[in-house]
Amino acid sequence: MALIVQKYGGSSVSDAASVRRVAKRIVDTKRAGNDVVVVVSAMGDSTDELLELAHEVSPDPPGRELDMLLTAGERISMAVLAMAIHDLGEEGRSHTGSQAGLITDSAHGAARIIDVTPRRILHAIDDGAIPIVAGFQGVSLESKDITTLGRGGSDTTAVALAVALSADVCEIFTDVDGVFSTDPRVVPAARRVPRISYEEMLELAAAGAKVLHVRCVEYARRANLPIHVRSSFSDREGTWVVTMNDPLPAAANPEGATVELPIIAGVALDLNDCKITAIGVPDRPGEAAEIFRAVAEAGVNVDMIVQNVSQGDTGRTDVTFTSPLASREAAITALRRVQGQIGYQELAYDDGIAKVSLIGAGMRSDPGVAATFFRAVADAGINISMITTSEIRISVVTDRDVATEAVQALHTAFGLDADGEAVVYGGTGR
């Protein structure tokens, strides 16, 4: 008998028929002799719809009330799924994040889990029931208010519960058959990756891949918890996210053979960044530190950074960085506040950019990756404005209107194209 935590995304529970299909899969897993704990997202795109409603009512809704509103979507999902499981002859028990023991800090909209005490979940398992937990939410230890974990937070909920329960595996069900070499909505010839390391998955998620949330992968890596990403619309084997040098779990690899990781895991596309440039920054020690201190204090995450060569006759330089598009106004406001202190001449920003990234652990030992990367982009006639690298990643910034062509060119150049087309069963990719 295994303890399995299953998480179902919005596309998997988008309507009544989908809920009934998911309920049958859960019941079948239990009747196969397993203990099952379920985490659900809101149905379909209902979270986006609630967000739109909130901003129609108020241009700047209070964080506390916004969290209270957004958690309604998952509460609906957990309740109707419990009903569907009951209709199949098993007991489903719905729980909010707070009832499931997910304790967070007080940061509304982006709370972090600080403890998990799943006593009620364990009691439900002992009673032979199937606990169903609303994803994306918890309760603040300090204020006792309802909090949300940020977009993609249901993945983190599932992994956190799986770790606290010492589960054998956390299954993340989505609308595609696993992790692909790129978004199959962008490149239909994307190839399913049977196995990927935590390290590569972290880079893919950080670079814009939507299939898993960064925080959930990091949580799983710390606990060495296997994640199985698969589709709720089929019974096909998905993608196992595991430690790089470990063999696949027995369920995925009955022979126990070690499978060598490919040089390149995939290509990621991020359309949710903007580029901000402080023009005419005095070229002296400490100015960059002041720029990024101001940005950090505004709560803005910075990804890529480029500083131009100092103009000798003026003693000034330009500092450019990328950040999430949603944080653009916060970053600009923070920098304008310290303009007199820093002494830069003006600010410029560009919303029409995209970040394209190539990820693969095999880059460490293959000297030809960079050459192939930049030749493929050049042959496609695509100009690059920023470059950053790590041991296993190359990221570039391009114009948004040519980003898809860049992804397609790289995917082909590195031999990632499959013979057929990937199947996307449902969902919009929002």
3D structure, described in words:
This protein has helices at 16-31, 46-57, 63-87, 119-126, 153-164, 198-206, 214-223, 287-297, 328-337, 339-342, 369-379, 403-413; strands spanning 3-8, 35-40, 92-95, 102-104, 113-116, 130-134, 137-140, 146-148, 169-174, 195-197, 227-231, 239-242, 266-270, 273-282, 305-307, 316-324, 346-350, 353-359, 386-390, 393-399. The longest helix has 25 residues, at 63-87. The chain contains twelve helices and 20 strands. It is of the alpha/beta class and 430 residues long. It has a domain at 3-252: Carbamate kinase (3-Layer(aba) Sandwich). α8 packs across α9 and α11 (369-379) packs across α12 (403-413). Residues 254-258 have low confidence and may be disordered.
State the main characteristics.
12 helices; 20 strands; Carbamate kinase; alpha/beta; eight-stranded mixed beta sheet; 430 residues; globular; four-stranded mixed beta sheet
Q: Layout of SSEs?
A:
Layout: E1 3-8, H1 16-31, E2 35-40, H2 46-57, H3 63-87, E3 92-95, E4 102-104, E5 113-116, H4 119-126, E6 130-134, E7 137-140, E8 146-148, H5 153-164, E9 169-174, E10 195-197, H6 198-206, H7 214-223, E11 227-231, E12 239-242, E13 266-270, E14 273-282, H8 287-297, E15 305-307, E16 316-324, H9 328-337, H10 339-342, E17 346-350, E18 353-359, H11 369-379, E19 386-390, E20 393-399, H12 403-413
Parallel strand pairs: 1-2, 1-9, 2-6, 3-6, 4-7, 9-11, 10-12
Antiparallel strand pairs: 4-5, 7-8, 11-12, 13-18, 14-16, 14-17, 15-16, 18-20, 19-20
Helix pairs in contact: 1-3, 2-3, 5-7, 6-7, 8-9, 11-12
